[in-house]
Amino acid sequence: MKKIILVAVVLLAGSVDMQAQLVRFGFKGGLNYANQNGSEITVNSDNYNTDAITSYHAGLVAELKLTDGFSIQPELLYSTQGATYKNAVEEFKNELGYLSIPVLAKFNLNKTVSLDLGPQASFLLSERNEFDVKNAETFEFGVAGGLSLNVTKNFFLQGRYVLGLTEASKEAEVKNSVLQISAGFKF
């Protein structure tokens, strides 16, 4: 885990070779509305339906301005995801904690709104569930897309959808999907 965090910090710090006015750092946090979707969701040979959970994300942001209308925004976030599993007999919650590293291309539609698109790599840090099965995959790759709204020069709001492209579980064919609402501050 220490190696993963060190690599992420080095990647963010290595991006700062540009002039200081072209790079802005900040932090953000917000709510996740997360679920796991798949064709066959079974645990111990029982079929389950999933319901979304509300969780959170928080972390660091860097914005590298390349042109007036385009910038790159790498982030280093702690994000909790998962779902509530239900069948006719029981219900339990599976919550996964990830170190997520989205790298988004920001297309400025005007001075206030930007379209954000890009890949996201996530590394599993913790798994908390109400059943005793350690079945989550340790790496997840996904794509993210959304909109950013610059309320002031430093304060921003974001809405984003992250779709997992790799399996989140070793026992079931499920993928994470997360709707994120964030607020943040850039220096």
Give a structural overview:
The protein is mostly beta strands. The chain has a single domain, classed as Porin. It is built from one helix and eleven strands. It has an eight-stranded antiparallel beta barrel. A two-stranded antiparallel ribbon has the order 2-3. The model has no long low-confidence stretch (mean pLDDT 86).
CATH top level class name: Mainly Beta
Using only C-alpha atoms, the radius of gyration works out to: 18 Å
| Domain tally | 1
Give the topology string: H per helix, E per strand.
HEEEEEEEEEEE
Low-pLDDT windows of residues: none
CATH topology: Porin
Q: What brief labels describe this structure?
A:
Outer membrane protein beta-barrel domain-containing protein, Porin, OMP/PagP_B-barrel, 1 helix, mainly beta
Describe the SSE topology:
Blueprint (H helix, E strand, L loop, with lengths): L1 H13 L8 E16 L3 E2 L2 E2 L1 E3 L1 E13 L4 E17 L4 E18 L4 E17 L9 E12 L4 E10 L9 E13 L1
Antiparallel strand pairs: 1-5, 1-11, 2-3, 4-6, 5-6, 6-7, 7-8, 8-9, 9-10, 10-11
Brief overview, please?
Keywords: Signal. The protein is mostly beta strands and 187 residues long. It has one helix at residues 2-14, and strands at residues 23-38, 42-43, 46-47, 49-51, 53-65, 70-86, 91-108, 113-129, 139-150, 155-164, 174-186.
